[in-house]
UniProtKB/TrEMBL annotation:
A GO molecular-function annotation: 3-deoxy-8-phosphooctulonate synthase activity
Protein known as: 3-deoxy-8-phosphooctulonate synthase
Enzyme Commission code(s) on record: 2.5.1.55
Name of the top EC class for this enzyme: transferase
InterPro entries: Aldolase_TIM, DAHP1/KDSA, KDO8P_synthase
Cellular localisation: Cytoplasm
Pathway info: Carbohydrate biosynthesis; 3-deoxy-D-manno-octulosonate biosynthesis; 3-deoxy-D-manno-octulosonate from D-ribulose 5-phosphate: step 2/3; Bacterial outer membrane biogenesis; lipopolysaccharide biosynthesis
Residue ranges annotated for the DAHP synthetase I/KDSA domain, each copy included: 13-268
Gene it is expressed from: kdsA
Keyword Signal: no
Length: 272
């Protein structure tokens, strides 16, 4: 796995997991900078390769009145400012073919949402930017089927591709992580575990997605034990008032304790 090709990604020579973390959505400059500063401090202390995550817009919403963003250009400029200020790479998700080229001007990793990972035009457009492409595994897809999504990227001339597992739909309102899929998908590309989205409870009658954040520690530790290359988790200093996915986010105040445990566990796993 070549992490060194991602601009400004630190600690790539070590054997720790890498981290994609930040708020679900960019709600404003102050909140993004505050969250980034905290996570950068933690990951520097623990020598974790870190990519700041923030969606510049949210397209997969349950209700038409759900928060979708503060404006595309405004949010993308905030992502660039985070990168320039803290010297870290950034990742954001894209939803349309036109988003790929535009977002690539501001961020280092383009993420394909789980619901859209079978959209060939979108995946190819992301690949052709030359940026690292993070493919979220569809909640409705088998681990084996992700080989085809990866091939769309590599056949487009881009070898920088990751797979992120975010759970599989179990019934109508729950997600289950099938850890048997981790070694399967590692045959195709480095594998990231999206801890917080795996604990979502979608399709609530209120139209607001629920979640089980009390299980973040459990799922994250299981992912490290299963051999994932990276961890994805969303965090906010005030999840209860976050404008998107607050029900399954980790409070920022709990992040250092979690990452410290995961780093220690990773060292143990590496011995085997």
């Amino acid at each position: 796995m070549d992490l060194s090709s991602i601009p400004q990604l630190k600690y790539t020579s070590g054997d720790n997991f890498f981290l994609l973390s930040g708020p679900c959505a960019i709600e404003g400059e102050d909140m993004a900078m505050r969250i980034a500063e905290t996570i950068v401090g933690i990951t520097d202390r623990l020598h974790i390769p870190y990519v700041f995550k923030g969606s510049f817009k949210k397209a997969n919403r349950s209700r038409v009145d759900s928060f979708t963003g503060i404006g595309d250009e405004k949010a993308l400029k905030i992502l660039r400012k985070v990168s320039e200020t803290f010297k870290v790479p950034t990742v954001t998700d894209i939803h349309e073919v036109e988003d790929a080229k535009r977002a690539a001007q501001y961020v280092d990793v383009l993420q394909i949402p789980a619901f859209l990972v079978r959209q060939t035009d979108l995946v190819v457009a992301a690949a052709k930017t030359g940026k690292t492409v993070n493919l979220k595994k569809g909640q409705f897809m088998s681990p084996e089927s992700m080989s085809h999504a990866v091939r769309k990227v590599t056949d487009s001339g881009n070898e920088q591709v990751w797979i992120t597992d975010r759970g599989t739909m179990f019934g109508y309102q729950d997600m289950i992580v099938d850890f048997r899929g981790i070694p399967v998908m590692k045959q195709y590309a480095p594998v990231v575990l999206d801890v917080t989205h795996s604990l979502q409870q979608p399709n609530q009658s209120s139209g607001v997605t629920g979640g089980k954040p009390e299980l973040i520690d459990t799922i994250a530790r299981a992912g490290i034990a299963a051999g994932v290359d990276g961890i994805f988790l969303e965090t906010h200093f005030d999840p209860a008032n976050a404008k998107s996915d607050g029900a399954n986010m980790l409070p920022l105040s709990q992040l250092e304790k979690l990452l410290t445990r995961l780093t220690a566990l990773r060292k143990t796993v590496n011995q085997f």
